[in-house]
Design a protein that fits this description.
Glutaredoxin, 10 strands, 313 residues, alpha+beta
Length: 313
């Protein structure tokens, strides 16, 4: 579910510079490279910061309540182009984005810089943790689906419905559930995450029954009745409800949920559900793309049993 917070507004704005600016930036970078790289003159960082700030404020209507910060300029892998991180704070919400700017301060682009000599998913895979969270499917699977979700999120419930019908077709796939409660808009999501972690601690298999019951009954749960609801679902899942309640106050359980949220933050997750299929990101309950990614990875993971080339006589 998309978070209706100022942070989402900031993040959306930071990700939406015009394609024309991007094209011009690339052209400027190529010109700088052809001219022999960077000039000996140092850029006027203060002037560049002021120019970028004025441009972004005008583009996104950021008034005085929006506070902007700028990192020191640093060399990028592209000759004649610098990296610059811009931070935006408003109403207690903060986000940042990386920009690239030409040495003369003339062109700005907001994009991901891709190194064609590396695996495009390597950086994301490095940040994904595959241990310590509820999972099902072969532990040694070569195809791993990692779901960052919020028990109170309606879109996460939609994804859960998709996964229940899709994954039985792919028994070789491992699913890992990660907690990412959107605490600013979902009042009982964090407590439900604690309860889920406690269910997992009691019985890793029974966790999935508990997980399904929470999503199935999502509309009936509130911050006021959560305590009774999770006890009921724990009992239905074959768990000790009293022990689950006690467990929810355990600092180690809170640390586990917070660690999962920190992992999501490091991956720049802003919406739930966000799914990774061997590092490929999907935002929202997009069953078609999810199946496409899974089929692609399953195909690549399968050993080849026939020659790729046939000779005809």
């Amino acid at each position: 579910m998309k978070s209706a917070t100022i942070r989402s507004i900031i993040l959306t704005a930071l990700c939406c510079l015009a394609l024309g600016v991007l094209a011009s930036s690339r052209a400027a970078a190529r010109q700088a490279a052809q001219a022999g790289g960077q000039s000996s003159a140092s850029p006027d960082a203060s002037a560049i910061d002021k120019k970028v700030e004025a441009y972004l404020r005008e583009l996104y209507a950021w008034g005085p309540s929006f506070k902007l910060t700028f990192s020191p300029l640093k060399e990028s892998p592209i000759p004649g182009v610098y990296e610059l991180t811009v931070g935006v704070t408003a109403e207690g919400q903060t986000d940042s984005a990386q920009f690239y700017i030409t040495r003369d301060g003339k062109y700005l682009m907001r994009t991901e810089l891709e190194d064609l000599n590396t695996n495009p998913l390597a950086a994301t895979r490095k940040l994904l943790v595959t241990e310590g969270a509820p999972s099902k499917g072969p532990a040694n699977s070569k195809v791993v689906v990692e779901e960052f979700a919020d028990f109170e999120c309606p879109s996460c419930k939609q994804l859960d419905t998709i996964l229940r019908s899709l994954l039985p077709n792919f028994p070789q796939v491992r699913l890992i559930y990660k907690d990412f409660p959107l605490t600013q808009i979902h009042p009982w999501a964090y407590s439900a995450a604690l309860a889920g972690r406690c269910a997992y601690k009691q019985n890793s298999t029974a966790f999935w029954k508990f997980h399904d019951l929470v999503f199935d009954n999502q509309e009936t749960i509130s911050a006021e009745n959560l305590w009774d609801k999770v006890a009921d679902y724990a009992t239905q899942s074959g768990l000790d409800a009293a022990a689950l309640h006690t467990c929810m106050a355990d600092p180690e359980i809170k640390a586990a949920v917070d660690k999962s949220m920190a992992e999501g933050e490091a991956l720049h997750i802003g919406n739930t559900p966000t799914i990774f299929v061997n590092g490929r990101r999907i935002i929202g309950p997009d069953g078609q793309t999810l199946e496409q990614f899974i089929r692609y990875e399953v195909m690549n993971a399968a050993p080849s049993s026939t020659p790729t080339t046939q000779h005809q006589r």
